Amino acid sequence: MARMFDNPFSADSRLDSCGCGRAHAPGLACEPAAAAAPADGTGVLGEAAEVAVMKAVFPDDSTRRSLLRIFGAGTVMAAIESVFPLASAREAMAQGASGSAGAPEKRDLKIGFIPITCATPIIMAHPMNFYSRHGLNVEVIRTAGWAVIRDRAIAREYDAAHMLAPMPVAMSLGVGVAQPQPFAVAAIENINGQAITLATKHREKRNPRDWRGFRFAVPFDFSIHNYLLRHYLAEHGLDPDRDVQIRAVPPPEMVANLRADNIDGFLGPDPFNQRAVFDGVGFIHILTKELWDGHPCCAFAVPRSMITETPNTFAALMRAIVEATAYSQKAENRREVAQAIAGQNYLNQPPTVVEQVLTGTFADGLGRVQRVPDRIGFDPFPWHSMAIWIMTQMRRWGQLQRDVDYAQVASQVFLALDAGRAMRDLGLPVPASPLRVETIMGRPFDPANPGAWTERAIRA
To answer: Which among 29, 55, 251, 340 would be 20 to 30 A from 62, CA to CA?
Structure first.
């Protein structure tokens, strides 16, 4: 029977792309054929295991081909078998994909979260029993700020965490931390759901060109908020590093800082944009969906070691999170979800405020009631194009001091294949590729040609 994957023990085959020899996103298009593979490791999934092992042993494919030509397949295979049981790898991969996932290796888990609506799936999965139905006993722990989330996740005080989508990228690259910390975005928690909110006294200053000298807050240096605010200001002719001040403020403290006149505005997560309106201290200048519709904000993040050390636990968590995300996305569930997460142990906000955010019918602080049903959305798929744009902005604003392979980092950190598998199991549509052209402030961002976005000039 013909192999679906190229033979990794042949010096004539190339493993630079997918081993199946077809042009598609890594892994995504191979899964339908894999579904019917035998569980003894003799079929297509056994072939995939061989390819994966050889790619890991020989990251440079030219080295693999050269050694095979010099020493032959038998010698190379024997050398690898002496340190890594290929037969066991073939069988384990086949059985793992056959649908017979075992019980979670670790049932009692701690997940840290920041009390914002971006964390809706992580939070609501607790009171609405999404974790327990997948065999997990999860404690969701309200946490003060993003630096605390990051440090506790690194210290393994949390098994998984609610993070801003750029955080696992920065951590994996060793940016903002003492040394690289391999973390991954298992699923996107929310899309959209942010806004630029200004103090009420600035009602007549709606043109960003009038914002020189303003003091802005963002949740964290490594946040979509920071990058979107900087891009928005630059597109209106302001230098974010010279013409304004941008400081990191934990989201729960943003409204108090606005009230105390410590800041003029913030680009932050809900429900605090709506809370500023509710308290009469601010107005919503613009929703971020108007800047980039479908942009990522927060993510469900895990240490990469979880995937290999406790794969059944990881799979159960993925199913619970993706299922909770899909439930939260449905308009008919939004009020129920708002009631579930508004309480003291979670967001600790008036249910009215949370409902206005989740339903998209809200007062904007300028005397209008707006109806924007997709003000916040919940789509778990971690598009690689999102990660690539994030890295261009890290490079643009000096956080990332070196060139990196954007596509490679995106594929390592944004786990599109795993999220896609969990989505498919729930009957959700899965994109054929993890790359798409994003539209940001009316301009296309092509992830295949990201260079133009690393040094975009500030427009006069």
So the answer is: 29
- Structure token digits, residue 144: 């003060």
- Is 296 in contact with 419 (CB distance < 8 Å)? no
pTM over 0.70? The answer is yes
**DSSP secondary structure string for all residues of 252-310:** GGHHHHHHTTS-SEEEEETTHHHHHHHTTSEEEEEEGGGTSTT-B-EEEEEEHHHHHHS
Distance in angstroms (rounded) separating the CA atoms of residues 144 and 161:
13
Per-residue pLDDT at 403 exceeds 50:
yes
Task: Round to whole Å and give the CA distance between 303 and 111.
Answer: 12
Phi/psi at 191 (5° precision): -120, 155
Q: Residues 60-66: contacts with CB within 8 Å, 24+ apart?
A: 61/14, 61/15, 61/16, 64/8, 64/15, 65/11, 65/12, 65/14, 66/11
- DSSP letters, 316-350, are HHHHHHHHHHHHHHSGGGHHHHHHHHSSTTTT-S-
Phi first, then psi: give them for residue 443, nearest 5 degrees.
-115, 135
118-139 pLDDT tens trace: 999 999 999 999 999 999 999 9
User: Which run of H or E residues covers position 72?
Assistant: none
Asked if residue 386 lies in contact with residue 295, where contact means CB atoms within 8 angstroms, the answer is yes
Write the pLDDT tens digit of every residue in 349-372: 999 999 999 999 999 999 999 999
φ/ψ (deg, to 5) at 446: -95, 115
Q: Which of 371, 363, 454, 362 is nearest to 406 (CA)?
A: 454
361 within 8 A of 370, measured Cβ to Cβ = yes
Residue 164 CA to residue 299 CA, distance in Å, equals: 6
Report how far residue 205's alpha carbon sits from residue 203's, in angstroms, rounded to the nearest whole number.
Answer: 6
- The 10 Å Cβ neighbour count of residue 256 is 14
Distance, CA of 130 to CA of 126 (rounded, Å): 6
| pLDDT category of residue 1 using cuts at 50, 70 and 90 | very low
Q: How far is CA 159 from the centre of its chain?
A: 17
Neighbour tally for 345: CB within 10 Å: 13
